[in-house]
């Protein structure tokens, strides 16, 4: 049974969120109900084996352009899948599962890793990550404010 929209917390079309297991206390995300999966811009993506499992090593740039911080990250590879972008191009992308914090809620979600350097937002938050949790008001922005305190992994 679906949760009625009136019972869901409202978020805007863009929000600040955190990825605590990756060491990211605050990152801007575009909320996109037209996208099934969430995407995160990463630099230097490389795969490696650890204990017989595929892991991914990458970095995430966060902060203002004048104060960019590169955070080195490692995550267990969940899967590699074909993703169709907004232009209709299909590409294979790595997926990870990690915790996400938004509007005081913390949950585990799948995120694909890609190059979003030409996009305005380093992260796209897709509908599978927010379904049954939030209702999106496209006329509002940053409803939840910016996360201020560091979160524990």
TrEMBL record:
* InterPro entries with a match to the protein in the record: Asp_endopeptidase, Peptidase_aspartic_dom_sf
* Annotated ranges, domain Retropepsin-like aspartic endopeptidase: 10-144
Q: One MF term from GO for this chain?
A: peptidase activity
- The organism sits in which domain of life? Bacteria
Pfam families annotated for this entry?
Zn_protease
According to its UniProt entry, one GO biological process term is:
proteolysis
Q: Which UniProt keywords apply?
A: Hydrolase, Protease
What is the designated name of this protein?
A: ATP-dependent zinc protease
Q: Output the lineage of the source organism.
A: Bacteria, Pseudomonadati, Pseudomonadota, Gammaproteobacteria, Lysobacterales
